[in-house]
Design a protein that fits this description.
Blueprint: E1 4-9, E2 12-18, E3 35-46, E4 59-70, H1 73-82, H2 87-101, H3 110-119, H4 136-147, H5 151-156, H6 158-169, H7 173-180, E5 194-198
């Protein structure tokens, strides 16, 4: 299986990697007190509920606690700012990705993404929103886009929908964390963000 590592806020995995193919976020966690038991989510039995997508199968998550790194999001944001990844940098990154992926950033704006992430319940969201890998692009396409009411508009233009999704897949974890920091559900009680490794 190899070694898995992830960066998550609540049950929302922002970034993950396997073996040597991952970003090292250890600079965000510097204190000994950051070492904690953190939840690891695995796929369990199939759930019988209303699927959001046709032929969409959901699975009950299995949760195990293992050693990882965790600290309140507000402290991580302070560290991100010190490292130079500020909220304003996130806005510039979004604009750059909009231009690079050629989507209309007046129809899907940074504020739309901020508002959507500001309302996501990171503590109850399904840990099963990916297909073999939970990247932010898939999360955007499957979870955020419908909540923003963009599905009908973006699906009418498949090229635009793909361009937005690919841009969101390449949005840095640090920009996503800045946006989640405006979410009242990302308080200290969520133990977020956290990172861990599964061997």
């Amino acid at each position: 299986m190899g070694s898995m590592i992830y960066l998550a806020v609540g049950r929302l995995e922002i970034e993950w990697g396997k073996n040597r193919g991952f970003n090292d976020h250890s600079a965000l966690f510097q204190a000994e007190s950051d070492v904690a038991n953190v939840p690891y989510y695995y796929v369990g039995d199939e759930e019988e509920d209303d699927a959001v997508f046709e032929d969409d199968i959901r699975y009950k998550p299995i949760v195990e606690f293992k050693e990882g790194l965790s600290k309140p999001l507000s402290q991580v944001i302070e560290r991100l700012n010190l490292l130079g990844h500020t909220y304003a940098q996130g806005e510039r990154e979004f604009a750059y990705l909009a231009g690079l992926n050629v989507f209309d950033s007046t129809r899907f704006t940074f504020e739309h993404l901020r508002d959507a992430l500001g309302n996501v319940d990171v503590n109850t969201i399904s840990a099963d929103y990916g297909e073999g890998g939970e990247d932010f692009g898939k999360f955007f396409r499957r979870e955020l886009s419908p909540r923003l009411g963009l599905d009908a508009h973006l699906k009418a233009d498949p090229v635009e929908h793909r361009a937005v999704s690919e841009a969101m897949e390449n949005l840095s974890a640090y920009t996503v964390m800045h946006l989640l920091a405006r979410n009242s559900r990302c308080g200290a009680s969520t133990g977020c963000p956290r990172t861990g490794r599964v061997c």
